[in-house]
Amino acid sequence: MKIEIWSDVVCPFCYIGKRKIEKALDKFPYKEKVEIEWKSFQLNPDQKTNPNISTLEHLSESKGWSMAQTREITSNVVNMAAAQGLEFAFDKAVVANTKNAHRLIHLAKESGKGGAMKELLLSAYFSKGKNVDDFPTLISIGKEIGLDEEKVKAMLESNQFEDAVDQDIYESRQIGVRGVPFFVLDRKFGISGAQADEVFDQTLEKAWTEFSKNNIVLDMAGKADGESCDADEKNCF
């Protein structure tokens, strides 16, 4: 069963929501039969990257809040993150356009590492104060999960995956996504936002019930890989 998640790498509730769906899956008996696909979404596609100011300063200026107000408002989000084991540092977070970060996720998806890349980018922005639109930073993050440095560099210096990012965003509009995170389970059930834990638990169960009605799901007994012959008999003796 597939779970598609539209989110941005500078969205605090996307990181919190990621932890919530992970917690739900950790309790789910069929976790190994669930595939997660990360979909691109940009909260502000026109955002100009500005490493000279923090996200707190940017919020204060763009919202017309005092810095004291900004810290008070964001402290609630920091506390929500802490409840999920996450440490947010808005005072260090760098204002950045996320298009290139999303392109990097698409590159990582080609080798089955989209989830790992998503995690590192969220951590880089919210916890480590890294510029997620900076090419050397993105190349370094790519290397952390084993991507080839030259391949990442070539991708960033081209327009590779721009269409894929745009397609994800277009698709989000087609299914009515107005905010992120947005979770789509088996293309039948949706969760909007980082909702209460029980919402994730219950929706996951509902989606699986519907999925299993139309798909044969085997409960495997014994070891995952017992002694056997391959269909082509190459590994029989």
Summarize the structure.
The chain is α+β, with helices and mostly antiparallel strands and 237 residues long.
Question: Could you characterize what this model shows?
Answer:
The chain is an alpha+beta fold. The chain has one domain (2-210): 3-Layer(aba) Sandwich (Glutaredoxin). The protein is 48% helix and 11% strand. The protein has a 4-stranded mixed sheet with strand order 2-1-5-6, with helices on both faces. β5 and β6 form a beta hairpin. The mean pLDDT is 92.
Question: What's the CATH architecture?
Answer: 3-Layer(aba) Sandwich
- How many domains? The number is 1
- Principal-axis shape equals globular
Q: What assembly state would you assign to the polypeptide chains in this entry?
A: single chain
In CATH, what is the homologous superfamily?
Answer: Glutaredoxin
N-to-C series of helices and strands: EHEEHHEHHHHHEEH
CATH-assigned fold name: Glutaredoxin
How does the helix and strand content classify structurally? alpha+beta
Please tally the helical runs, counting DSSP H or I stretches of 4 or more residues. 9
Number of strands: 6
| N-to-C CA distance | 35 Å
**What is the CATH C level class, in words?**
Alpha Beta
Q: In which range does the helix fraction lie? A: 40-55%
Provide the β-strand percentage band: 5-15%
Estimate the mean pLDDT confidence: 92
Unreliable sequence segments: none
Major sheet characteristics? 4 strands, mixed
Order of strands across the widest beta sheet? Answer: 2-1-5-6
